[in-house]
């Protein structure tokens, strides 16, 4: 018998003594065991016996796969409880207060429509149920994506700048010195003048990221620099006239149109290539998504050079004499050429003839520029007129202004500002926003330079306008010109060398073929029904029969005398009658739809006449 524990005397707090052996025999509790009251023996119950487990476990089939037992003991899997749906209104914060605005924040419809790429006014085509369900799923995903993009727009903290006068003051009278004095130190450092009268006049070009600047003088001076930090990358003299200069897909490569041939340099000033097939080039344009360098020459040829493989994709004869005016449409990569007869022609490397011709001026065209959305085109001619055209299919002038000297150079900014260089004066016009055309009534800014203008370009993602003139290079501050937010995966001004290399590989993999350049890029996602029918017709004429035609019905033979000639003919006639009924039913439906359209047109048309009774 065990020892009997004695109760403590009243008034004392000493607990009763326990047997030392009993405390030593006490085992530790396993993690699968629940905390229980110790037994009289003082030991906690252990795991159940293996024999009982063996008897109770069901027998496995012979071919069943048995997993090997791990030496490390695993925690037994407890079945998860089903997740209970909770009303968001009933959820409270840590402080206990209820959310006054439960659920996701509403998104304005106007912001969602800006990111939507599907036209919901067009009904889905009549097709199979499986195809229709896929189209509906694609529309739902597109709508969800546009809502997410609209919500993420809240993260774009930067806002475009602007310039306002006090008490109705004309902003055109505000000079650059006043703007530099009013802005912060970092913005004021972006305004500078490079006095290079020895080798002028100059043409200039900014890289796609807006971080680097390249310029070339008519007397052979070529230089590239990081204009933000003023760090010079390279500076050479090619000992030949430089007519135009362009950055390629990155700031590491530079194309220079010299007096005789086209040359390619790197950012250290080392000549990499001399392309002799592009001779006497006057203008350069680079298409970044197609890796195409477009050149216009004195001989009247428009040449497309694929810089990724080093081959000439197309050489098109414009048949309009010397080509001095060229610009590109950033929306669809179509090249706009200005001619001496007052017309502007639109070109694609996939066509040997121009896509369209627009009569813009009574005299020769001096300059052409297209905005970033591809909606508006600005032209200036020898008749001293500046016109803005609508490129959305009408090609009609929206506004016209007569200038005292005529504009020799034009350029659009990312936010829709239009700049015109007239002699040694630069005028800038602004509109209501990015999607609206600039108003030509009153200039937004005006600046006078030390020499005649020879080149203009707005810096991407900066409120800066670069002007090349006979006296050098001038960097002007134009508030509201640049896009305040940039895409870090596409054009990152702060990217490192490794990031630039990775972006270049990705851009080469996503290169758009030159054959896809057309006026309406949205047409690429549609089916060309006319070409499809024409190809089908030519295939039938070549083969002599229609390979896609439905085979005539052939009844299957049956047994027990049911495949007689009479029964076969009867079954064939039954199928033919069903097909005939379907055709008649479809023709009746088409006639009813046509009559409904005609009646609707009559109801919305002119007033009824007494002679309508004779119409059959």
UniProtKB/TrEMBL annotation:
It comes from Chlorocebus sabaeus (Green monkey). The keyword Phosphoprotein applies. This is WD repeat-containing protein 46. Residues 62-80 have a biased composition (Basic residues). InterPro entries: BING4_C_dom, WD40/YVTN_repeat-like_dom_sf, WD40_repeat_dom_sf, WD40_rpt, WDR46/Utp7. The keyword Repeat applies. Scaffold component of the nucleolar structure. Required for localization of DDX21 and NCL to the granular compartment of the nucleolus. Part of the small subunit (SSU) processome, first precursor of the small eukaryotic ribosomal subunit. During the assembly of the SSU processome in the nucleolus, many ribosome biogenesis factors, an RNA chaperone and ribosomal proteins associate with the nascent pre-rRNA and work in concert to generate RNA folding, modifications, rearrangements and cleavage as well as targeted degradation of pre-ribosomal RNA by the RNA exosome. Its main location: nucleus. Residues 1-106, 543-616 are annotated as: Disordered.
């Amino acid at each position: 018998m065990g020892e009997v524990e004695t109760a403590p005397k009243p008034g004392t707090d000493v607990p009763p003594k326990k047997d030392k052996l009993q405390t030593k025999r006490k085992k530790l509790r396993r993690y699968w065991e629940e905390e229980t009251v110790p037994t009289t023996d003082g030991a906690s119950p252990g795991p159940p016996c293996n024999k009982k487990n063996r008897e109770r476990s069901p027998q496995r089939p012979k071919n069943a796969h048995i997993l090997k037992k791990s030496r490390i003991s695993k925690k037994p899997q407890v079945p998860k409880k089903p997740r209970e749906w909770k009303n968001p209104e009933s959820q409270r914060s840590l402080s206990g207060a209820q959310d006054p605005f439960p659920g996701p924040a509403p998104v304005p419809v106007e912001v969602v429509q800006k990111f939507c790429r599907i036209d919901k006014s067009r009904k889905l085509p009549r097709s199979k149920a499986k195809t229709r369900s896929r189209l509906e799923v694609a529309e739902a995903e597109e709508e969800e994506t546009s809502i997410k993009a609209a919500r993420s727009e809240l993260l774009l903290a930067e806002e475009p700048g602007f310039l306002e006068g006090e008490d109705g003051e004309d902003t055109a009278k505000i000079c650059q010195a006043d703007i530099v004095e009013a802005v912060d130190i970092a913005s004021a450092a972006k305004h500078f003048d490079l006095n290079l009268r020895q080798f002028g006049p100059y043409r200039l070009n900014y890289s796609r990221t807006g971080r680097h600047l390249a310029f070339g003088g008519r007397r052979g001076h070529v230089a590239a620099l990081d204009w933000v930090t003023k760090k010079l990358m390279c500076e050479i003299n090619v000992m030949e006239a430089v007519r135009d200069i362009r950055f390629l897909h990155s700031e590491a490569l530079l194309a220079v149109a010299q007096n005789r041939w086209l040359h390619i340099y790197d950012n250290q000033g080392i000549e990499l290539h001399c392309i002799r097939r592009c001779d006497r080039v006057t203008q350069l344009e680079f298409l970044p998504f197609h890796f195409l360098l477009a050149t216009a020459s004195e001989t009247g040829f428009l040449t497309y050079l694929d810089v990724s493989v080093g081959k000439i994709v197309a050489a098109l004869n414009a048949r309009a004499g010397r080509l001095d005016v060229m610009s590109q449409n950033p929306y669809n990569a179509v090249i706009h050429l200005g001619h001496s007869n007052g017309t502007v022609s639109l070109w694609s490397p996939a066509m040997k003839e121009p896509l369209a011709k627009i009569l813009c001026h009574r005299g020769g065209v001096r300059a052409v520029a297209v905005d970033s959305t591809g909606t508006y085109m600005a032209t200036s001619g020898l008749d001293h007129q500046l016109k803005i055209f609508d490129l959305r299919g009408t090609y009609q002038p929206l506004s016209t202004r007569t200038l005292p000297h005529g504009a020799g150079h034009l350029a659009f900014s990312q936010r829709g500002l239009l700049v015109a260089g007239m002699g040694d004066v630069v005028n800038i016009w602004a509109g209501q926003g990015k999607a609206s055309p600039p108003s030509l009534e009153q200039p937004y800014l005006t600046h006078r330079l030390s020499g005649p203008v020879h080149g203009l370009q707005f810096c991407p993602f900066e409120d800066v306008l670069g002007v090349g003139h006979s006296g050098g290079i001038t960097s002007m501050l134009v508030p509201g010109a640049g896009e305040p937010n940039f895409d870090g995966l596409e054009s990152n001004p702060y990217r490192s060398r490794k990031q630039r290399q990775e972006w270049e590989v990705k851009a080469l993999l996503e290169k758009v073929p030159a054959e896809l350049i057309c006026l309406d890029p949205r047409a690429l996602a549609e089916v060309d029904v006319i070409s499809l029918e024409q190809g089908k017709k030519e295939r039938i004429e070549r083969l002599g029969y229609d390979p896609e035609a439905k085979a005539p019905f052939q009844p299957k033979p049956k047994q027990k005398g049911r495949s007689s000639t009479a029964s076969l003919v009867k079954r064939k006639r039954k199928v033919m009658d069903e097909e005939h009924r379907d055709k008649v039913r479809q023709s009746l439906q088409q006639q009813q739809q046509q009559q409904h359209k005609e009646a609707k047109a009559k109801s919305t048309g002119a007033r009824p006449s007494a002679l309508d009774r004779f119409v059959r």
